[in-house]
Specification:
By secondary structure, the chain is an alpha/beta fold. The protein has six helices and eight strands. It has a five-stranded mixed sheet with strand order 6-5-4-7-8, with helices on one face. The protein has a three-stranded antiparallel sheet with strand order 2-1-3, sandwiched between helices. The chain is elongated and about 60 Å long.
């Protein structure tokens, strides 16, 4: 059975545009630092995506087509980026988070453990920590997280946690308030992208405790 044709959007590459073959797309992104691209199942979807910001599409599934299928994501993570992750101990409730620089796998920050936390809070704080650090360096490289919830919180500039404050996690709630204030008082151009574990393997910032 013949495969359905795909169309490839290149937002950042040698020549941005819509391409109807992987070979043509690859020619635009190969050797281009920070290339942004993705495949679509129709030219109309691809042309619409090209007119929009890439972070709205990269790391997010397309809407189901007429046959109800979700196409896979083509490509690899953007090499020049920061990847964050959090770890939550189900026995103790302690949470910690960290960020790595993807090209070198170097840990650029590691925080915690914090008492009575949650994994989503850790992911949220990790993204904001990375944003603040990159802001100091005047860098707008992407940040990857494998938590859609935390990415949504960052976009809304509010951690919508159901966690109750306690004397033990007061420090954590202080950090949340600081993070929300930072988001509300700073502008940033860094794309916040979803780390696609299914396609790319384990999050490189994972604590390895699964």
């Amino acid at each position: 059975m013949a495969k359905s044709p795909k169309y490839y959007v290149v937002w950042k590459g040698k020549q941005p545009g819509v391409y109807d073959s992987w070979a043509d797309c690859q020619a635009q992104i190969e050797g281009f630092n920070g290339a942004l691209y993705k495949s679509f199942e129709s030219r109309s979807l691809a042309e619409k995506a090209l007119s929009e910001k890439p972070h709205l599409h990269i790391g997010a599934p397309q809407k189901a087509g007429t046959q109800g299928k979700l196409p896979g994501i083509v490509g690899k993570p953007i090499p020049d980026s920061v990847v964050v992750d959090a770890a939550w101990n189900t026995a103790t409730g302690d949470m910690e988070y960290q960020g790595i620089y993807l090209p070198t796998k170097q840990t650029i920050f590691r925080m915690g453990p914090y008492a009575d936390g949650t994994n989503n809070i850790g992911e949220f704080l990790a993204i904001v920590h990375a944003l603040a650090l990159l802001d100091q360096k005047h860098s707008n490289i992407p940040i990857y997280s494998d938590s859609r919830t935390a990415i949504g919180w960052v976009q809304k500039k509010k951690a919508n946690t159901k966690l109750d404050p306690t004397p033990r996690n007061q420090e954590l709630f202080d950090l949340l308030a600081r993070a929300e204030k930072w988001l509300q008082t700073h502008r940033f151009a860094n794309p916040i992208l979803k780390w696609e574990t299914t396609h790319w393997g384990e999050n490189p910032a994972d604590f390895g405790r699964k």
